[in-house]
C-alpha cells in the first residue's frame, strides 16, 4: 500500500476490497475459492470472507452455492457499461489488433494500464499454428513483467518508474531474477531506445513477447499493443521487422484515440 493510502481514513479496507475485486474479476466465469483469493490478496481467510461478503451484499461479487467459488457480480456489469463510454478503446482498437495478427501471423493483443498492472482487453490469433498462451483477455501482469507492461513502464516519467520500483521490490522474487531492479532498468532503457519492448521468454521459457506503448492525448502511455509467439519465430532479422510493424500499428491507434477524444 502506498504512503497516501496510509493517511486516508478507511483507505486500507478499500484497498483490500479492491484487491479482492480485481482477483475475482481476473478469475472470470470460472470463479475462485476463498482460500485462493485470501492467499493472493495476502489476507487471512476470515478477513477475505468478511470483505467478500460485504462486496456480495452490494452486488459487486457473487458466490456459487454449489462450487463455493466467488465470481463477478451483476453490479460490475452495470458499472462497466457506464465506464466503457469513457475508458474502453476496444472498439477503436479491434481492427488494428486484427491487422497486427494478420500481418505478423502471431497472436496480437491490446492491454490497458490499471494502476501498477496491465490488463489484457483483446486477443486476436495469427495464422501461425503454434501459439503461446501466456496472455489472454482478462489476464493481469505487473508493469515491467509482460512486454506490454514493459513498454508502458519504459515511457513513464523517471520519477514514476522510481516510485513503482520502490513499491514493488518483490518483482524479482516472484517473477525471476531477471525482474530485479538492475536488469529491469536495463530492459527499460533498451525499450526506450529501440521504441518497443522485447520479452525473451522471461515468463515462460520459449515464449517470446514484444510490446509497443499506445499514448493518450497528453502523451502518457496508457495502453500497449503486443505480440507473443514461440522463440524461433523471433530471430534477430525478423525481430526488427516485427518491431516496425508493431510500432506503426501502435502509432495508428494512438492517433485514433487522440482524434476520438477531441
From TrEMBL:
A biological process term (GO) from this entry: negative regulation of DNA-templated transcription
GO molecular function, one term: DNA-binding transcription factor activity
One Pfam match: HTH_IclR
Alphabetical list of InterPro entries matching this protein: GAF-like_dom_sf (IPR029016), HTH_MetabolicPath_Reg (IPR050707), Tscrpt_reg_IclR_C (IPR014757), Tscrpt_reg_IclR_N (IPR005471), WH-like_DNA-bd_sf (IPR036388), WH_DNA-bd_sf (IPR036390)
Keywords assigned: DNA-binding, Glycerol metabolism, Transcription, Transcription regulation
The organism's place on the tree of life at top rank: Bacteria
Ranges for domain IclR-ED: 75-259
Domain HTH iclR-type: 11-74
Role description: May be an activator protein for the gylABX operon.
Full protein name: Glycerol operon regulatory protein
Gene source species: Microbacterium ginsengiterrae
Amino acid at each position: 500500500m502506498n504512503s497516501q493510502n496510509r493517511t486516508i481514513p478507511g483507505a486500507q479496507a478499500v484497498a483490500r476490497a479492491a484487491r479482492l475485486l480485481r482477483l475475482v474479476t481476473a478469475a472470470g466465469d470460472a470463479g475462485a475459492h476463498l482460500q485462493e483469493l485470501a492467499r493472493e490478496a495476502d489476507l487471512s481467510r476470515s478477513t477475505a470472507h468478511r470483505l467478500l461478503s460485504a462486496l456480495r451484499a452490494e452486488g459487486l461479487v457473487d458466490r456459487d452455492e454449489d462450487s463455493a467459488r466467488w465470481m463477478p457480480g451483476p453490479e460490475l456489469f452495470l458499472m462497466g457499461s457506464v465506464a466503457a463510454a469513457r475508458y474502453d478503446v476496444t472498439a477503436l482498437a479491434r481492427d488494428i489488433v486484427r491487422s497486427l495478427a494478420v500481418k505478423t501471423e502471431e497472436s496480437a493483443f491490446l492491454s490497458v494500464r490499471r494502476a501498477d498492472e496491465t490488463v489484457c482487453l483483446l486477443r486476436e490469433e495469427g495464422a501461425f499454428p503454434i501459439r503461446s498462451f501466456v496472455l489472454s483477455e482478462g489476464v493481469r501482469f505487473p508493469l515491467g513483467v509482460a512486454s506490454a507492461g514493459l513498454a508502458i513502464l519504459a515511457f513513464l516519467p523517471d520519477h514514476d518508474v522510481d516510485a513503482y520500483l520502490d513499491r514493488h521490490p518483490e518483482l524479482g522474487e516472484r517473477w525471476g531474477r531477471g525482474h530485479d531492479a538492475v536488469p529491469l532498468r536495463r530492459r527499460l532503457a533498451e525499450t526506450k531506445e529501440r521504441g518497443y519492448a522485447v520479452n525473451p521468454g522471461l515468463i515462460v521459457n520459449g515464449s517470446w513477447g514484444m510490446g509497443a506503448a499506445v499514448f493518450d492525448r497528453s502523451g502518457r502511455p496508457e495502453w500497449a499493443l503486443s505480440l507473443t509467439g514461440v522463440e524461433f519465430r523471433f530471430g534477430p532479422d525478423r525481430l526488427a521487422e516485427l518491431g516496425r510493424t508493431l510500432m506503426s500499428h501502435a502509432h495508428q491507434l494512438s492517433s485514433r484515440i487522440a482524434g476520438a477524444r477531441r
